[in-house]
Write a structure and sequence with these properties.
The protein has 5 helices and 6 strands; from the N terminus they run αααβαβββββα. With 149 residues, the chain is an alpha+beta fold. A 6-stranded antiparallel beta sheet has the order 1-6-2-3-4-5.
């Protein structure tokens, strides 16, 4: 994974995707729907980046700080665990919502130089793990990635 700095005010998720896919910020941005204004006007939601990563051959799964059935906020150490080898962490910073890459050990923050540990970020809202479908699907099994919504 090569570190990628976000190039626009709302471009943290674009930079995270670029890190996971070993591409540049501009390569990822050029693949996104321009009318959504990702990066310069709007940030990507977890649904947005899960959908995009599907088109790139990855499947994603998210776990949330809030339990859906009780609306109870879980204790930090009850649920902060990596889902896979590559995760996008959704957090709240002093500037608002923010996306980070976590390899299960180190956080790569597209808006700050250096690397951090997960406990540096206290307002984590969700963790989305990604798996490359090429390694999960038996050889010869065909999947039409365009029909999954």
């Amino acid at each position: 994974m090569i570190y990628c700095k976000q190039e626009e005010p709302f471009g943290c998720a674009i930079a995270c995707i670029a890190m996971i896919l070993d591409k540049t910020y501009q390569e990822i941005k050029s693949l996104l729907p321009h009318e959504r204004g990702y990066g310069n006007r709007n940030g990507m939601t977890s649904h947005d980046y899960i959908s995009f990563m599907w088109t790139q051959g990855y499947i994603g799964m998210t776990t949330y700080a809030c339990e859906s059935h009780t609306q109870k906020i879980r204790q930090y150490d009850e649920w902060i665990n990596p889902l896979s080898k590559v995760n996008i962490v959704s957090t709240i910073t002093e500037n608002g919502p923010h996306a980070l890459v976590w390899d299960g050990r180190i956080i790569y923050d597209p808006n700050r130089d250096g690397t951090y540990l997960i406990n540096h970020y206290k307002s984590i809202q969700a963790i989305t793990g990604f798996w490359n479908l090429n390694y999960l699907i038996p050889e010869g099994l065909a999947i039409d990635k365009t029909t999954l919504k």
